[in-house]
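Hello again, I could really use a second opinion on something today. I've been puzzling over a protein and I'd love to understand its fold better. I'm sending you its amino acid sequence along with the backbone structure tokens. It would help a lot if you went through both lines with me. I've dropped the whole record in just underneath, so have a look.
***
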Amino acid sequence: MATNKNWMIVFTDNDDDMMLVGDDPWQEFCAMVRKIFIYTKEEVQKMDSSTLNPKNEDCLDMKENVKETKGS
């Protein structure tokens, strides 16, 4: 199955913080996730930092890569 890199998965947690899906252990993720959204890279790029709260460095890198890809 080919992976499509045009989509990003974002979720809201117990505090209504919106974050990119990262490397959370499955049980921890299941305990905190409230809603799951699938956005295009362009939609994620348009979100400001106060809307999207990456939980870890990988998520920060993913958001930066979206910006770099759009600029290419």
